Amino acid sequence: MFISPAGADQKPPPRIEPRAVVRMMDNRESIVLINVLSFLECMDSRIPASLCIACEEKGEKAGLLPRDRNAKLVFYGGNTPVEAGCEIIREAQRQGFANLYILKGGLTAWKRAGYEVESVNRIPRVLWPAVKPGNLKPWLNSAPGALMIDLRSPVAYQSHHISGAVNMPLVSLHRTYQDLPWDRPLLVIDADGSRSFLAASYLRRKGFENVRRLEGGMAAWQTWNKRGAP
Amino acid sequence: MRSRGNIGYGLCFALIVCLALGGIWPAGIVQAAGNPSEAPRNCQSCHADAVFKAGFQASAHGRNTCVSCHADITDLRRHMTGENKPGPVNCGSCHRDVASRFKKDVHYVKQNFQCQDCHQDIHSIRKSQGGFKVAAVENCTQCHSREDYALLGHSGALLKGNADAAACTDCHGLHNTPYYDPSLERDKAAARENYTRRCRSCHADVKMAKRNQFSTKTVASYDDSYHGKVLNIGYPQRVAGCADCHLGHNILPKNDPRSAMHPDNMKAACKACHKGFHDRFVSFDPHPEPLDPRRSLVYYWTEVFMIALLGGTFAFFWLHTILWWRRTYSDKCREGKAGFIEKTTFPECREEKQIQRFPVRDRVMHVLLILSFFTLVMTGFPIKYYDSPWAKILINMWGGAYRAGLFHRIAALVLCGLFLYTLWLSLQFLFPKKQFRGSLKRLFGPDSLFPNFKDLKDIIGMFKWFFGKEEMPKFDRWTYWEKFDFFAVFWGMTAIGGSGFMLWFPEKFSYLLPGWMINVAAVVHSEEAFLAAIFIFTVHFFNNHFVPNKFPLETNIFTGRYRLEALRHERPLEYERLMAEGRLDAMKREGPGFWTQLFAGAFGLASLMLGLLLTVLIFWAALFY
């Protein structure tokens, strides 16, 4: 006997081009844009008037979904495709929303198409070189006591992570950063290197002085490991 | 634990001081305080850091007032009390062009960078003493580590003082660094095209090359390689650009073990695109210079041989053609003036006086040969002359370079099939019913296409006839030029087909041959293609169609029929032989029907016209590009 979670058997929503979303807006259709990235990323840059509900936040923020079940919900992330297991999308399917879409290419495609974004609470970037996977060991040796922070979801972290890294998902970093040690060098690690810059900048702005990021994230780390260390 | 309260207290203290000063300030300044556009001096009363005082005055923006940028501070009193906080500065209000380009920049698109993220010293920004390029490297390496991206190669040379060396911005652009999504094929192709173009902009610059002692031949030789030609024709998806092999950063001499071009690393460089090759594959030269014997004697002599072959073949046959045309033309004129020629522009009427010269099988084979040959020429020559104006038009007619390549390979397989079938027919001709006896006689006999001693005598006799020294030689079933045509296809198929398969499956051939043989194959394939196309479109067309007594079209290869009168005049030995053997009557047929003649005329003339058009295009490209 197999029991699948509610909504698991649902098909993923169709992908929609940025210009199609703009056409819906121009036609004054009932459309709600939902940024499924972390709160920090969403505040930093989002399509104007989007809701910020991260994939993992189905319980806390599911109430923000509109009451009109016929409203068109367009979910978007960054450049990487919104994961099939994105909980808030499943939640919307469970709640009976009929018109769900995923923005093809996410916020990156939106920007590339030349459409505007808004920054509600932008994090000024702090410029600091990243650590390449090949230089990780020398860097760890040169920075005793360094702490590696894996910003991915607990599921991704559990499937594989760099030995010694602790999991602190980006989705809740704005609430949990105070638990980090102030006096230790930090190395932030994400899936592909595209989200750690913002996290490192955020931590630096919050007063952590030595924050580096792993260039290319776990993907680059794995590629480097496959090729073999020189 | 680090204290995080100091900055906040400092700001509060500054605000209190400012407010206090506002209360006791001389009346003139207090009045001015309501109008922030008066002078930066008012702002500096509170923003008293050196960076806002001396730094800003000397900066690139020093002639502006504070509110030139912080335009949303409209009421200084409210600003001082914290009610009118400035919003983000819109640099684009002045730097419109930069702001517009930055909308496509990877730093904005992927990381939501704003101007102030890179220009953090915006209040004291000034022209770099080391020059723009050095400043760009310094700025980029704040995030992109110096060790990995700048210390060696181009930027390394720049930092050592070579102003010609490329800064980050020379390759990646400034404020318009393109974003390429590695998961999208079209983005990967666009990146390859862009960066190859960027490399070319310096490495093909003769003056820069002279100053820096490098050769512009590097670019020319890449452009002449398969990689370069296919990329230039507009199909960068499947070929290597500069950065695929040399990688983007820290480009080093190939004797440096860290260089991607070091012999130990070449395999990895090739492996990025090619799979399943033997180690000897890496001896392929991606920058071949066939006319430089110092680079490779093998390419050099291959090229010399091919040039000699082309030169010799064309010199002989074009001379032959011109002399033949002159002789036949003068004969025709003489006969015309004497009133011997019956002028008709219509096809021959249906008549009994024709014989069967080609069976249906041969006619179908020739039509297939024509179709496949034209396909090969029209899909291959745009690659050979990628920079000619017609190349891309022709490629686009096929639906792009990928489809053109597909058609090229299909046509090649059709031609290979014809080649093998002809080989089979030749063996059947020589050894009918597996009879070996008499095969030599058949080989050198009058029905054979194999050259014999009489052909040599016919060549000499023909030249004597051109000059009016002798009568035209009497030919049997096959003339010497027809035999040459037949063997040219055989020779051509071996050379062009063999080299074509090597270029098609280079990795597999590396198990049999060294990688540099791919370079040899490229030379042979290209030159032999030129020889085949131009020979067919000039010499073959003339010998069989444009001779004044056949002009404009000889249709017997399409109709299969040959006029008895033509047989008697053009191949008297065959005519006499058939008469003597009593076989002539059995070969007589009714003339071709209307539809056969219509097809033969339309298809034949269309082929001739297309061939002549292609000849013009090929010579245009060969002479001017």
Given as residue ranges, the uncertain stretches of chain A (5+ residues, pLDDT < 50) are 1-7
The CATH architecture of the largest domain in chain A can be given as 3-Layer(aba) Sandwich
Number of helices of chain A: 10
CATH superfamily of the largest domain in chain A: Rhodanese-like domain
Structural class of chain B: mainly alpha
The amount of helix of chain B comes to: 55-70%
Sheet with most strands of chain B:
3 strands, antiparallel
Features:
heterodimer; A: 230 residues; alpha/beta; Oxidized Rhodanese, domain 1; 2 domains; 5-stranded parallel β-sheet; 4-stranded parallel β-sheet; 9 strands; elongated; disordered N terminus; B: 625 residues; mainly alpha; Fumarate Reductase Cytochrome B subunit; 33 helices; 3 strands; 62% helix
Helices, strands, pairings?
The complex is a heterodimer of chains A (230) and B (625).
Chain A: E1 15-16, H1 18-26, E2 31-35, H2 39-44, E3 51-52, H3 58-61, E4 72-76, H4 87-94, E5 99-103, H5 106-112, H6 136-142, E6 147-150, H7 154-159, E7 166-167, H8 173-176, E8 186-189, H9 196-205, E9 211-213, H10 217-227
Parallel strand pairs in A: 1-5, 2-3, 2-4, 4-5, 6-7, 6-8, 8-9
Chain B: H1 6-24, H2 27-33, H3 40-46, H4 51-58, H5 66-69, H6 76-80, H7 96-102, H8 106-111, H9 115-118, H10 132-140, H11 146-149, H12 153-159, H13 168-172, H14 185-203, H15 206-212, H16 217-223, H17 226-233, H18 242-246, H19 263-271, H20 297-337, E1 354-356, H21 360-384, H22 391-397, H23 401-430, H24 439-444, H25 453-466, H26 480-504, H27 506-509, H28 516-546, H29 556-559, E2 561-563, H30 564-570, H31 572-581, H32 584-587, E3 588-589, H33 594-624
Antiparallel strand pairs in B: 1-2, 1-3
Helix pairs in contact in B: 20-25, 20-28, 21-22, 21-23, 21-28, 21-33, 23-26, 26-28, 28-33, 30-31
